């Protein structure tokens, strides 16, 4: 499995959570994941959701980070998501 990187602010991550969005990958463009509530193309697939990213952030922080902890946070966070 390959990896793709995304960067997003806590504030934007909360908006994605509120809109039930995930991180999607287009085969052949794995280096350009995108946020959406559904795939843009037939073969696109969801590789992560907000909870996946919160789990990564919690592991790095050493405490359980909830979405409400990030609602006003404008700091950028970098995540690595898996691709097929």
Task: Describe, in plain words, how this protein is organized in 3D.
It is a single chain. By secondary structure, this protein is α+β, with helices and mostly antiparallel strands. It has one domain. The chain has 2 helices and 5 strands, in the order E-H-E-E-E-H-E. The protein has helices at 10-18, 50-61; strands spanning 2-9, 22-25, 34-36, 45-49, 76-83. The chain has a 3-stranded antiparallel sheet. It is globular, with a radius of gyration of 13 Å. The protein starts with a strand and ends with a strand.
The largest sheet, given as strand count, sense and whether it forms a barrel, is: 3 strands, antiparallel
- The amount of helix comes to 25-40%
Spans of at least 5 consecutive residues with low confidence = none
Mean pLDDT score: 94
Question: What would the keywords be for this entry?
Answer:
three-stranded antiparallel sheet, alpha+beta, 84 residues, 33% strand, 2 helices, globular
Question: Short summary of the structure?
Answer:
The chain is 25% helix and 33% strand.
Set down the secondary structure blueprint.
Elements (H helix, E strand, L loop, with lengths): L1 E8 H9 L3 E4 L8 E3 L8 E5 H12 L14 E8 L1
Antiparallel strand pairs: 1-5, 2-3, 2-4
């Amino acid at each position: 499995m390959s990896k793709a990187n995304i960067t997003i602010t806590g504030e934007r991550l909360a908006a994605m959570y509120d809109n039930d969005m995930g991180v999607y990958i287009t085969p052949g463009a794995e280096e350009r994941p995108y946020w959406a509530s559904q795939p843009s193309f037939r073969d696109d697939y969801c590789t992560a959701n907000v909870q996946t990213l919160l789990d990564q952030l919690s592991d790095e922080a050493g405490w359980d980070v909830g979405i409400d902890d990030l609602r006003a946070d404008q700091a950028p966070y970098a995540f690595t998501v898996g691709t097929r």
